[in-house]
Specification:
By secondary structure, this protein is mainly alpha-helical. It has helices spanning 2-13, 34-45, 50-64, 127-138, 143-156, and strands spanning 76-80, 86-90. The radius of gyration is 21 Å and the shape is elongated.
Length: 167
């Protein structure tokens, strides 16, 4: 019984901002960082579609929350079109053209540290190209319009917002 009381007290002490289900009639933007969420909402309010918002949010996150994975890496995008058809975009990073199957093996065929350390461990990022393709194929807005909010955040700076508040 005492254990249940302790658990009940702990549950009651959880902050009110814990994730709650949210429903929206037409559109929704969710991002780990509040500025990026605002960027996506602004895009939708300005007549952009979900792909436009996703690209703008991705660039904003590259500035405000780079640990989210961003323009230096790769990603995926799942797009559901108005007709119900789904499209999957894969823009993961790739190995350079000169890479070979055995480039990380030593003479005896054992793995070396070069796959994790040094210049040969890096890949060619795919995010920017993937965002470009998504915008050209499925977006409504221009590249410049979708990059502009991230440029503004980077050049003018931004105040860190606690996850408990919206901007």
């Amino acid at each position: 019984m005492r254990r249940i009381q302790v658990l009940a007290l702990l549950a009651a002490a959880l902050p009110a901002w814990c994730a709650q289900p949210v429903r929206a009639r037409q559109a929704m933007v969710v991002a780990r960082e509040a500025h990026a969420t605002s960027v996506g909402l602004d895009v939708l309010r300005g007549g952009g579609n979900a792909v436009d918002a996703a690209v703008a949010v991705g660039f904003a996150l590259a500035v405000t929350h780079p640990a989210a994975g961003n323009i230096g890496g790769g990603g995926f995008m799942l797009v559901r079109l108005a007709n119900g058809r789904a499209v999957f975009l894969d823009f993961r990073e790739r190995a350079p053209l000169k890479a070979s199957r055995d480039m990380y093996l030593d003479a005896s065929g054992k793995a070396t540290q070069e796959s994790v350390t040094g210049y040969r461990a890096s890949a060619v990022p795919g995010t920017v190209r993937g965002f470009d393709y998504a915008l050209r194929r499925y977006g409504r807005k221009s590249w410049a319009e979708m990059v502009r909010p991230a440029v503004k955040l980077a050049s003018q700076g931004f105040r860190f917002l606690n996850a408990r508040r919206n901007p």
